[in-house]
Amino acid sequence: MKKILLLLAVCMLSSLSYAQKLKTLDGKPDCIKGDQNINIIFTYDDLKVGKMNEGDYIKRETAERNDKEQGTGDEWSIKWEKDQSERYPAKFIELFNIHGDKLFGSKVVENSETAKYTMCVNTSFIEPGFNVGVMRKPAKTNHMITIYETANPNEILHELEIIASPGTGAAGYDFDAGFRIQESFAKAAKEYAQYMYKKHLK
Asked: What is the pLDDT, as a whole number, of residue 175?
């Protein structure tokens, strides 16, 4: 019994470990310092979910849920797309603006028609993770963030990669995959703002 409990404890600790990495690939974001009107867009080009491409993942999850209870898979697939367009972007924007405004006076807004600069957040990988009570695995996401002049999107002013941004809930109450992924986006936004400040805008 003790060996089983020890094994479970090790699994829980290993599932909560992570090594988030942020790496500047090109340019410096000096241009956005103090800008309160940075346009932001979110894309999911070539998205992988776990070891699958997104399309196959959605088909599998939808079918498995519908097999268990008709209609639940279709509801899940609608929620999956809605979370990508609403829930995750909203959380990223919220956390970036809190820290970006505090550290270097910058904020992002969606659908700005007057913004000089645009920030594109492309999410290329999502690991939803799990929480089954005795065992947990955090969500993780990878993002490529680019900043460019809105009028000239081919000229990249800054490009940065975020790898393995973790997402968990406080005190273990993160049974919903959407919530874990949302927190992963929040972590990415916070760390990105802090990284930009320390590396480029301080």
From this structure: 85
* Tens of pLDDT, residues 99-111: 999 999 999 999 9
Domain span holding position 185? 2-201
Residue with tokens 């910058």: 106
Q: What is the spatial distance between Cα 196 and Cα 201, in angstroms, rounded to a whole number?
A: 6
Residue closest to 78 by CA, chosen among 68, 65, 89 = 65
The closest of 49, 32, 23 to 118, measured between CA atoms, is 32
Cα(200)–Cα(183) distance, integer angstroms: 25
Cα separation of 181 and 57, whole Å? Answer: 16
Pull the structure tokens for residue 46.
């070539």
Rounded Cα gap, residues 77 and 89, in angstroms:
18
Interatomic CA distance for residues 61 and 172, integer angstroms: 24
